[in-house]
C-alpha cells in the first residue's frame, strides 16, 4: 500500500486537469428512504459468508510464491501463478499486460548505536534509498520529534549528521493517520537531504510496539540526490529517543547495501466476467500483486486480490449480468503505482462504469462511499439496504479509490470505496509480520460478502453509472 495524491497521478498521466476530471460526489440519501433488498442478492450475500475462495487464493499466493518485490523474479512467477489461478476459476480473457518498472533492490543492512551505549538496532532500508559507502556511516544523530520539526531545520544544518525523525503513528479505524504521519517516510529523506544530512532513519510508520521494522517507498524530489534512508523498528526508535533525551552526543552506525538496478519487467494480470451490454461500461476491480520483501504479502495485498476475485467469481456463478466485471491484479503498486498508470494509458478510451480496489488488509468492511453521477441516487439506497446486515454503513467521505485505480478516477470514472477497519492493519503493514496468520477467515468472508453484494447491485443497475466525459 502506497498513498499517491491524485495530483501526482494526473501529472504522471500527462497533466490531467483534476478540477475537470474528479468524479462528482454522491449526495447522501436520507436514512428514511426505503429500499427492498432483492432476494437473489440477499441469497448471494449470505452464500459469500460461507465461501472460502478468497482464503484459498491468498493461501496459495503466500505459500507458492511468497514475497513479490517489484521487478523481481518472484513478481514474474506471481504473474504466471495468477494466470493459472484465474483460468482455473473460470474467468474469461485472462492475459498479462506487460510494462517495465524502475527497480530497487535490498542488500545487506545493519544499524547500531555505538555511543554512548552500544546497542544493535533492527532497521530496514526504505525503497529508493541510496547505499551507504562501503563499511557504512558512523555519525552523530540529529533528533527531530516530528516531521514538522525537520522542516524547520535550516539548510546546511544537518551536514555530517544522520537525521532521526521519531513521529509516532496512532491507530485509526479509517487509516487516516498513515497519511499524516507517513510524511516522515514519503518526504522525510528528501527533506533531510536538502538540509545536508548524510543519511536518515525514521521511526517506522506503524502502530505496533515491536522490533519488526516497517519498510516502504520514499520519493526524492527532482534535483535532490538520494541519501541512505532506513526505518527503525518502533521499539528501537523509542530506545534511541530515550538515549537522545539523556543528553550528550549519540553516535549511530548505519550500513545499507541497497541499489537501483535499472528497468525490469512487470505487468498487470487481467481477467473478466463478460457482461451482456457493452455500452453499459466496465466495472474495474482488483488489488495489487506485488509486495514488499520482508513478509509474504498476505494483507498487502494478497487479501485484496483474493477478495475481489472471489466476489467476481461468485457473481459469475450466479448467471449473466449486464456489465462486464474486469478483475485486474496490478503488477506494481508499492514503488510508484506504475500498474495503475499503465492500465489507464492502455484503457482510458474504453467505457468504464466504475473503478474500485481492495488494499487495506482483510479486516471487516465497516463503511462504503460512492462517487456516482447525478441520477444514480437509487443505487446508493439499494447498496445501503443490502450492505446493512453486514454491518456496513454509508459514509459521507469522498471516494479516493486507492493507488491502483486513482488514474482512472482522475479521468472521471465513477468510484466506490468499501472501507475496511485499519485498527490492526498498520501493526503489520510492510513488516516481516505480513503473513497469512494475520488474516481472520471470518472477517475475510465478510469482505467477500460486501464486495459480492455491491457488485451484484452495480453490475445490473439500470441507472447510468458513467460520469459525464470531462
Fold and architecture overview:
The structure is a single chain. With 470 residues, this protein is α/β, with parallel strands linked by helices. The protein folds into two domains: 6-104 and 262-460, Zn peptidases (Aminopeptidase), CATH 3.40.630.10; 108-257, 3-Layer(bba) Sandwich (Glucose Oxidase, domain 1). Helices cover 33% and strands 22% of the residues. Strands 3-2-9-5-6-7-8-4 form an eight-stranded mixed β-sheet, with helices on both faces. Strands 1-10-12-11-13 form a five-stranded mixed β-sheet, sandwiched between helices. Helix 11 crosses helix 16 (441-460). The chain is elongated, with a radius of gyration of 23 Å.
Secondary-structure map:
Blueprint lengths: L5 H7 L5 H4 L17 H10 L4 H12 L8 H16 L3 E14 L3 E7 L3 E3 L1 E3 L11 E8 L2 H6 L9 E4 L10 H6 L1 H4 L1 H7 L4 E5 L25 E4 L1 H12 L5 E6 L2 E15 L8 E7 L9 H20 L6 E7 L7 H10 L4 E4 L9 E7 L5 H11 L5 E2 L11 H5 L4 E6 L4 H4 L12 H20 L10
Parallel strand pairs: 5-6, 6-7, 7-8, 11-12, 11-13, 14-15
Antiparallel strand pairs: 1-10, 2-3, 2-9, 4-8, 5-9, 10-12, 14-16
Helix pairs in contact: 3-16, 4-11, 11-16, 13-16
Amino acid at each position: 500500500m502506497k498513498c499517491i495524491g491524485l495530483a501526482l497521478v494526473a501529472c504522471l498521466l500527462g497533466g490531467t486537469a483534476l478540477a475537470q476530471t474528479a468524479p462528482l460526489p454522491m449526495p447522501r440519501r436520507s436514512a428514511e428512504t426505503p429500499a427492498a433488498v432483492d432476494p437473489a442478492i440477499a441469497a448471494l450475500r449470505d452464500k459469500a459468508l460461507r465461501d472460502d475462495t478468497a482464503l484459498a487464493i491468498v493461501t496459495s499466493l503466500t505459500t507458492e510464491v511468497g514475497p513479490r518485490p517489484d521487478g523481481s523474479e518472484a513478481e514474474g512467477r506471481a504473474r504466471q501463478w495468477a494466470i493459472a489461478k484465474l483460468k482455473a476459476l473460470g474467468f474469461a480473457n485472462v492475459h498479462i499486460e506487460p510494462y517495465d518498472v524502475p527497480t530497487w533492490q535490498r542488500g545487506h543492512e545493519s544499524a547500531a548505536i555505538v555511543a554512548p551505549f552500544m546497542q544493535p538496532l533492527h532497521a530496514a532500508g526504505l525503497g529508493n534509498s541510496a547505499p551507504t559507502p562501503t563499511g557504512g556511516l558512523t555519525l552523530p544523530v540529529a533528533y527531530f520529534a516530528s516531521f514538522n520539526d525537520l522542516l524547520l531545520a535550516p539548510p546546511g544544518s544537518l551536514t555530517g549528521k544522520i537525521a532521526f525523525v521519531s513521529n509516532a503513528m496512532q491507530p485509526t479505524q479509517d487509516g487516516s493517520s498513515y497519511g499524516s504521519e507517513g510524511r516522515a517516510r514519503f518526504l522525510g529523506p528528501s527533506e533531510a537531504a536538502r538540509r545536508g544530512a548524510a543519511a536518515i532513519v525514521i521511526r517506522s510508520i506503524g502502530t505496533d510496539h515491536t522490533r519488526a521494522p516497517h519498510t516502504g517507498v520514499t520519493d526524492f524530489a527532482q534535483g535532490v540526490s538520494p541519501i541512505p534512508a532506513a526505518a527503525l523498528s518502533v521499539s528501537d526508535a523509542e530506545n534511541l529517543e530515550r538515549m537522545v533525551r539523556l543528553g550528550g552526543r549519540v553516535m549511530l552506525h548505519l550500513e545499507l547495501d541497497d541499489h537501483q538496478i535499472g528497468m525490469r519487467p512487470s505487468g498487470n494480470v487481467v481477467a473478466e466476467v463478460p457482461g451482456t451490454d457493452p455500452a453499459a461500461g466496465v466495472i474495474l476491480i482488483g488489488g495489487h500483486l506485488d509486495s514488499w520483501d520482508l513478509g509474504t504479502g498476505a494483507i498487502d495485498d494478497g487479501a485484496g486480490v483474493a477478495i475481489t476475485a472471489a466476489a467476481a467469481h461468485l457473481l459469475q456463478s450466479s448467471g449473466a449480468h449486464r456489465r462486464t466485471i474486469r478483475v485486474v491484479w496490478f503488477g506494481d503498486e508499492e514503488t510508484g503505482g506504475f500498474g495503475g498508470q499503465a492500465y489507464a494509458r492502455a484503457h482510458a478510451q474504453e467505457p468504464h462504469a466504475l473503478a474500485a480496489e481492495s488494499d487495506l488488509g482483510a479486516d471487516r468492511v465497516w463503511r462504503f462511499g460512492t462517487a456516482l453521477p447525478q441520477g444514480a441516487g437509487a443505487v446508493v439506497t439499494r447498496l445501503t439496504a443490502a450492505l446493512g446486515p453486514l454491518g456496513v454503513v454509508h459514509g459521507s467521505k469522498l471516494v479516493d479509490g486507492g493507488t491502483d485505480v486513482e488514474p482512472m478516477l482522475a479521468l472521471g470514472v465513477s468510484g466506490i470505496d468499501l472501507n475496511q477497519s485499519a485498527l490492526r492493519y498498520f501493526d503489520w503493514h510492510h513488516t516481516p509480520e505480513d503473513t497469512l496468520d494475520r488474516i481472520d477467515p471470518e472477517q475475510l468472508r465478510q469482505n467477500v460478502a460486501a464486495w459480492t453484494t455491491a457488485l451484484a447491485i452495480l453490475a445490473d443497475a439500470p441507472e447510468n453509472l458513467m460520469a459525464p466525459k470531462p
